[in-house]
Design a protein that fits this description.
Layout lengths: L6 E9 L5 E10 L4 E5 L6 H8 L7 E6 L2 E2 L5 H5 L2 E4 L11 H6 L14 H13 L15 H14 L4 E5 L7 H14 L5 E5 L3 H7 L2 E6 L2 E6 L1 H4 L2 H8 L1 E7 L5 E8 L9
Parallel strand pairs: 3-8, 3-9, 6-7, 7-8
Antiparallel strand pairs: 1-2, 1-4, 4-5, 9-10, 11-12
């Protein structure tokens, strides 16, 4: 028998109360030690699928398994010991400092709610140094730049010691330098026993860093595999309705250059 996948989705469906079918019969499995890019246009189901994985949303049908065990019967605390979530935006920081925010990542593992063990304090301090934000440890989170805040949120997920990390659009508000900075951190975090799933719009960035890409359209998976093999002009046109040039630079890195919007058949023009 083969090894048990770290993550497995079995015929996952999510239908909202208004009847919108956001995720349609999605099935795939991922092993450990992978950086996986999840790409597709707005509204294709990326975020909804990730929220079903960590039970922020209940799925309508199907199943999600982590290390061979369904998450559907797990408590939030049990899921948090396996799955960490890095949101696209932090809606509120409750006035927490950088140190306090990262320490929150340790709570799924703590037995005492009133104080943190010395080992956890040392682990958090070491992680702040690893992510280059130790000097910001006493600063309120809402006083940081977008790039600094993103690193802090990834550090919080890191100290959670998950098997699976779900990262939603980590570079959407960042300039080129911080986009690369964040992806370098995510790439370095992938270990033999942990996989990182990243939902992102920058296809070239995903192709550069990811071991595997999952491409979604209208709630379904249309392609999955090595980004340098599955990302083609035909795929981009089918998924995004955009004509694009797809090529490789002198170092062998794939790039995508959008050229023009392809109007759906029968639509009017300007």
């Amino acid at each position: 028998m083969g090894e048990t996948p770290l993550l497995e989705l079995r015929n996952l469906n999510k239908v909202y109360e208004d009847g919108y079918h956001a995720v349609r019969d999605v099935s795939y499995s991922l092993g450990p030690g992978l950086l996986v890019g999840l790409i597709g246009p707005n509204g294709c189901g990326k975020t909804t699928m990730m929220r079903c994985i960590n039970r922020l949303h209940d799925c309508t049908s199907g199943d999600v398994l982590i290390d061979g065990e369904s998450v559907l019967s797990k408590t939030p605390g049990e899921i948090a010991r396996k799955v960490a979530n890095v949101p696209a935006e932090l809606r509120t920081s409750f006035g927490l400092t950088v140190y306090e925010t990262v320490m929150l990542g340790r709570y799924p593992h703590m037995r005492n709610l009133w104080w943190e063990p010395m080992e956890d304090e040392e682990f958090v301090s070491d992680t702040l140094r690893k992510f280059g934000v130790y000097h910001l440890r006493d600063r309120p989170l809402n006083m940081l730049s977008s790039g600094e805040r993103q690193r802090v949120l990834i550090a919080k997920a890191y100290v959670q010691e998950p098997r699976l990390m779900l990262v939603d659009e980590p570079t959407s508000h960042l300039d080129m330098k911080y986009k690369l900075d964040v992806m370098e951190y995510l790439n370095a975090m992938v270990k033999k026993d942990m996989t990182v799933l990243v939902a992102e719009h920058d296809i070239s960035l995903m192709a550069r860093y990811c071991d595997l890409c999952i491409i979604m359209k209208k709630g379904q998976i249309v392609a999955m595999g090595d980004p340098k093999k599955v990302i083609t002009p035909e795929l981009i046109e089918d998924v995004y309705e955009v004509s694009a040039s797809v090529g490789f630079d002198e170092s062998g890195e794939l790039y995508v250059i959008p050229k023009r919007y392809r109007e759906p058949h029968g639509s009017g023009g300007f």
